Each structure stands twice: as structure tokens, then as C-alpha cells.
Amino acid sequence: MKFGFIGLGQMGGGLARNLIRAGKEVKVFDLNPVAIEKTLAAGTTGIAVKDKKDLADVDVLFTSLPLPKHLEEVMLGEDGLINKMRSGATYIEVSTIDPQTARKLSDACEARDIDYLQCPLGLTPAHAEQGTEPIYVGGKKEVFEKMKEVLEIVGGQIHYMGEVEASAAFKIISNLIGMTNLAVLSEGIRIGEKAGIDRKLLIDLLSETGAFSFQMKVRGPWIVNNDFANRFGLDLALKDIRLGIEMAEAWENDAKAMKVALEYFKEASAQGYGKEDCNAVYKVIK
After folding, report:
1. What CATH number belongs to 168-284?
2. Spatial separation of the C-alpha atoms in residues 170 and 161, rounded to whole Å
3. How does DSSP classify residue 226?
4. What CATH number labels 2-162?
5. Residues 6+ apart with CB under 8 A from 105
6. Core-most of 38, 66, 183, 259, by most CB within 10 Å?
7. Distance of CA 92 to CAs 5, 18, 57, 64, 145, Å?
8. Res. 207 pLDDT band, cuts 50 70 90
9. Is the pLDDT of residue 224 over 90?
10. pLDDT, tens digit, for every residue of 84-93?
11. Is residue 83 within 8 Å of residue 56, measured between CB atoms?
12. Which of 227, 231, 212 is nearest to 124 (CA)?
């Protein structure tokens, strides 16, 4: 079975390297030569291609790209890769995208007799690298069963969600809640500072209470140590919050608390923190 992978960033790169470490033949494409070099260093079965069209002959294609518009540009239309792939191939999409884009991709694949799975990821680039990333799968059940062993190579716990819209929506809901939690955590740390409480002590003690969260566990210590190195970029988080609020509004949900978080992330991006970790939202909360 021949694999292809488009998008070797912080999340996609780890998944592609897991395939190579497993001895799978993987053609890889990315606009960043450093990302390609890092991925090829994972083993001897990776092959860099100069054009995405060189991936049209693979049995299983993965994509991991920043924005829905990037996927539409690469995959859809007359010159899109879906139109070049062979009948009977499988396309596995792991980006965080809206349900409507997931459906467009799925329908385009079905028209070409290509299997499609929408497979957003649940945790961090470190989990992707270690092969422990939770994967939330949407698509036809028979395609999921056929590709489950492949997904277990690149990720950790594999969860079947139903249709592609369900898996895409789940990931956006997860990020909406997580980033809103991060904004609330940042507000809490600032209030603690006003009260004269040491930031490390505050995080340690809050972790014993109902205030505890994944963001507190992971990003709380980074904020305490002024560590804003990019693990999941603030601009990517902003994109996901926007997608989530648009999705909620389409279903007539106000998402009021999440809209407050959106404004914080917009302000942080406008102040130049977009390439830092999303915990840099703390910097604009006073």
C-alpha cells in the first residue's frame, strides 16, 4: 500500500513520520523544505515529491492543511487532486475544518469513486509525534473499518463519530471549549496577580479544585514561566474559534461566552502574537 501526505506541519508532520517509522512507503509534499527534511529523517521509506500531482497514484492520501480554503484549492475543482486520484483510492483528511467543507470534499470523492474519511485530531503536536493522538473519524462505516489499522499506525485512540459533519463539528466544539477555557484561565491568573498570589502557587492550588482543566494542566505552567513558544499557534486557534462561532450561528446558537474569547484572540493577533502559542492570549488580558 502506497501512502501520500500533504502538509507536514506540527500535526501532519508527526503523523507522516509515524507512517515512515512503520516502514510504509510515503510520498510527502510541503512548501517548507525544512518540514520535508525533518520528515524524511524519520526513516528510509519517505519520498519527497516536487508537485502535489505526483501523489495522484497513491492508495491512501492524507492532508493536513491550515485552512478550509487551502484544502479547496489543493483538492477540489478541475485541477484539484481529487480529480487526479485513481478510482478506489482512499482520502483521509485530518485538518480542523467546518462541516460544510468536509461535506464538499466527501461528495467530490464519492463522485470519483474515492473513499473519504474526515479525521480531525484531538490533542497536541507532541501526541502526534508519539503516535498517541486521538482521532475522531467521520465517513462511511465500511471505509472506517477498512482504514482502522492505518489510523492506528498514525494515532492513538480511534473514535468513530458517524457522518463527516459529526467529526468535523466535534473537533471545532472541542477547540471552542478549549480556547475559551484558556481565555478564562488567563483572566483568572490576572485576577490572582492583582490579589498578590504567586502565579505558580495559584496554578498548583487551582489544580486541586473544580477550576482544573486540560488547559490549566498544559498551558498554565507555560504562562507561569512566560513560555509562549508555538505549540499550537494563536492564529490557528483564532481560525478555529471563528469557524466554531460561524457553525454555532448557522445552527442558531449565540455562543456568547465564546464570542468574548474570540475578541481576546483577535486582539492578541492584532498585537502581533499570532505566531506564538495560543497561550499568548494571556498577554492582552489585564
Report:
1. 1.10.1040.10
2. 9
3. T
4. 3.40.50.720
5. 71, 75, 76, 82, 91, 93, 116, 118, 164
6. 183
7. 9, 15, 15, 9, 13
8. very high
9. yes
10. 999 999 999 9
11. no
12. 231
- SS3 (DSSP) at 114: coil
pLDDT digits (tens, 9 = 90+) for 230-250: 999 999 999 999 999 999 999
**For residue 158, what is the DSSP state?**
E
Which residue type sits at 92?
I
Q: How far apart are CA 74 and CA 221, in angstroms?
A: 38
Q: Determine the 3-state secondary structure of 30 from DSSP.
A: coil
What type of residue sits at position 248?
A
Residues 6+ apart with CB under 8 A from 50: none
What number of CA atoms fall less than 13 Å from residue 61's CA on the CB side? 30
Strand order across the 158-162 sheet: 46-48, 25-29, 2-6, 60-63, 90-93, 115-118, 135-139, 158-162
User: What are the C-alpha distances in Å from 139 to residues 110, 128, 147, 161, 189?
Assistant: 11, 21, 11, 8, 41
> pTM for this one?
0.88
Domain ranges of the chain: 2-162, 168-284
For residues 120 and 94, what is the distance between their CA atoms, to the nearest angstrom? Answer: 4
Q: In the prediction, which pLDDT does 42 show?
A: 95
Q: Residue 186 — left, alpha, or beta (φ > 0 → left; ψ -120 to 50 → alpha)? A: alpha
Q: How many residues does the chain have?
A: 286
Q: Which residue has the cell 502535489?
A: 52
Q: Which of 261, 205, 207, 204 is nearest to 238 (CA)?
A: 261
User: Quick one: cell of 49?
Assistant: 515529491
CA distance 271 to 123: 27
